[in-house]
Amino acid sequence: AISDRIEDVEPQVQAFLHIDLEYAKAQAKRIDQLPAHELERLPLAGVPIAIKDNMTTTAMPTTAGSKILEGFMAPYNATVVNRLEAAGAIIIGKTNLDEFAMGSSTEHSAYHVTRNPWDLERVPGGSSGGSAAAVAAQMVPAALGSDTGGSIRQPASYCGVTGFKPTYGRVSRYGLIAFASSLDQIGPLTRSVDDAWLLYQVIAGHDPFDATSLTQPVEPRTAEPVQWNQLRIGIPKEYDGEGLDPRVQERYHQVLSTLEAQGAKLIEISLPHTHYAIATYYLVAPAEASSNLSRFDGVRYGYRAQGNDLLEMYERTRAEGFGPEVIRRILLGTHALSAGYYDAYYLKAQKVRTLIRQDFETAFGQVDVILTPTTPDIAFKFGEKSQDPLQMYLSDVFTVTANLAGIPGISTPAGLISGIPVGIQWLGPALQENRLLQIARGFE
Ligand code: GLN
């Protein structure tokens, strides 16, 4: 039973911030009692699913991994939660994350770290580290994560699972605690591409509660295989070299040879503005975060500190409620947005963002899909990067570009390096999720 598995491995892995098996059992009972003709229509009937704890649930607390939201009970479910439950899924718990999804290792959670099930000395990646670890440790077959700069794909790569970030706007952000609203996207973490596809079909599609939700219809899943000899795969030269762990590079090159042997055409492409991606992302994301996090004032949500007057209460609440990485982002973001610096930093970053998007548009004129390593390295050890924010930021170099461009990306497992998983990343044109998933599935 799922509860036995959780009992066995969760004490070591600590993927969850909250587990509610009573709630899960009640849901399972409700589904069991449905008449057969209704059950048949539920694509996820009885499937246990874990939700990253930055998506709201009325049945369980939502903390976003922050002390400032300790004990917070949301008044409504995120749209994705409603859609999963309507499809018969059983939400069993909320998974750990870097505070407000800011990080790449889950070490920035205000509660505890999550361990990589492949090696408990190593991080699971982040910020959706709890979701990736829960799937990798086989506590659940699927989980939801959120991806602002790689937070689904990077932990998927580190934990040897599949992680899919759809096109920006495909999945409703209603009920997702906002980090950087123009980059945030919810997606599944699963053990196979087909499972990710199935979950995606359930959660995607227009939602009037999210102003940036796309209205284009979500096409049904296909069983059709890929015709490798008709496929043009773009290999961006900027993703293959400096800063890339030679062992990851070797695996990546082996994958490329295999694809070539299957008949795919590999085409070298250039995404020339990749070099500026980290700098651009770490201006845009903190700028939006600084604005989004202003709502945590001790009045409307969660934690409140004592103060002699209103201002002191605000200041103490935020100083005590936010962890150091979140405070760093607020400082970076407010600086980039402040008068006198706005043009030099924020506006400049927005312009480079456009160039990055154009790089992809040009590339997709030549190729069907782009293949890159997901991360420049494999899962690192606890503490290795947490003292040096810049080192941590650099592990996002291959993932942030998809968020800046709004395009879909998926990380799938590509074998092991000394017993530690490594992933590859497939990127596709906006709204071409089905094509992308079909290709990624063909190779897994
Ligand atoms: N690691 C990146 C950051 O810290 C991405 C996080 C994310 O995608 N939520 O901002």
From TrEMBL:
One of its GO terms (biological process) is translation. One of its GO terms (molecular function) is glutaminyl-tRNA synthase (glutamine-hydrolyzing) activity. GO terms for cellular component: glutamyl-tRNA(Gln) amidotransferase complex. Keywords: ATP-binding, Ligase, Nucleotide-binding, Protein biosynthesis, Transferase. InterPro entries: Amidase, Amidase_CS, Amidase_dom, AS_sf, GatA. Pfam families: Amidase. PROSITE patterns: AMIDASES. Residues 1-437 form the Amidase domain. It comes from the Bacteria. It is an enzyme of class 6 (ligase). The keyword Cytoplasm does not apply. It catalyses: L-glutamyl-tRNA(Gln) + L-glutamine + ATP + H2O = L-glutaminyl-tRNA(Gln) + L-glutamate + ADP + phosphate + H(+). The active site is at 52 (charge relay system), 127 (charge relay system), 151 (acyl-ester intermediate). Its EC number is 6.3.5.7. Belongs to the amidase family. GatA subfamily. Allows the formation of correctly charged Gln-tRNA(Gln) through the transamidation of misacylated Glu-tRNA(Gln) in organisms which lack glutaminyl-tRNA synthetase. The reaction takes place in the presence of glutamine and ATP through an activated gamma-phospho-Glu-tRNA(Gln). Heterotrimer of A, B and C subunits. This is Glutamyl-tRNA(Gln) amidotransferase subunit A.
